Amino acid sequence: MGSKEKSKSSLRSFPRNFWTVIIMEFFERGSYYGVMSVLSVYLVMNVNDGGLGFSKESVGVIKSTITPLLYLLPILSGAIADRFGYRKVLMFAFVIMSLGYFLTSTVTSYSLVFLSLTLMAVGAGFFKPIISGTIARETDESNSTLGFGIFYWTINLGAFIFPLILVPYLKGISWSYIFIMAAVGTGWLLILNVFVYKEPPRPESTKSIVEVLKGVVLVLKDYRFVIMIVIYSMFWILYFQMFDTVLWYLKEHIDMSPVNKVVNSFLGIFVNEPSWKFDAEHVTVINAGTIILLQLIISNIVKNTRALPTMIAGIALGTIGMGILAISTHAWVFMAGIIIFSIGEMTAHPKFISYVGLIAPADKKALYLGYSFLYGVIGSAIGGILGATMYVYFVDGLNRPGLLWFIFSLIGVATIIGLILYNKFLAPRKEI
After folding, report:
1. Where among 132, 163, 197 does a domain terminate?
2. DSSP for 32-45, written as a single string
3. How many degrees, rounded to 5, is the angle at CA 100 between CA 99 and CA 103?
4. Which end is more exposed in the chain, N or C (fewer Cβ atoms within 10 Å of the end residue's Cβ)?
5. What average pLDDT does the structure give for the chain?
6. Using an 8 Å Cβ cutoff, are 63 and 40 in contact?
7. What contacts 27, CB < 8 A, 6 or more positions away?
8. Residue 264: left if φ>0, alpha if ψ -120 to 50, beta else—which one?
């Protein structure tokens, strides 16, 4: 009874502004992952089937442009928000994001789709740091851990619910409805921003854009940090395949009937003649669902383990998951690969954030943590184009998908070897 009351009081310790941004995060991430769960499929699908008929290589260029923006823009948008106010930046982000999604639902030419998705990415990139910044300012030492735990759980909840429930229904009507859903899902947040969100207390000192860019130079001069980020980003080349090549592979080479049969047998307990089908959007659902179910368990298992060896173990699991895809085109093998990869991701990434905090100079921890996202810039910039090019060559050209996943697994192995060598020769001795 005591622990229950404590839990309640902990949740009640958060102000309204905290829950406001949690709702914003849920709808923004749900809209984003709802779109991203099928975007690469929609863009390459035959026009007669409702798609746009772009080449896979051209889609790789789009993804290698818009995704890095999401990781790169928060450097500037965080500084801009600190100087000019969070509400103003949120207003800009929601308008640009919603407009980008809406325009994507209406245009069909490659250049206009590219431009519309770039608008969406700019809006999302400006939105990203405002939510975590607000949470940081609306929590204290007593509830910060719980607050950010709710924040990360909300991200995965949005990534789970929107692709699971909304995307299959909307694409059955029209693919364009998925983008309209995202436009509405982010556009209505303007109302929350105007009428409910309160400007949090400004930091005592704010940095100009020039000072922020000086911070980039300062961090990049630390060659140990840069090498570690570059090595770790290789694993994220694998991660970003979950939104491109893995989806194409599923649509073109995997018969998910065995999974459909099991799920429909279960659903048959509740409804008559269910006709559920595993489709591209469910890859994101599996990834997010695995994290929702297992993150607390995994975090508890590794809470006292050393950061770098745990990162290596997580990346090894992710690499095994990717390698499993090379074994067979059977539905359950595919599912096992996605689930194991997700477990590897949730094992490695929290420890990566922890490790950056450990190796950063004591007076520059916030700066280093702010630039640790560069793994996403590098991983997505390379992953989109590399994945599309290799898929066209090995899968479309040679009809050897197993070889594609084997090569990606080798990138995972190279990441592990790189981190082992880093641990041996470059890692600060006091942290190992």
Report:
1. 197
2. HHHHHTTHHHHHHS
3. 80
4. N
5. 92
6. yes
7. 158, 185, 186, 188, 189
8. alpha
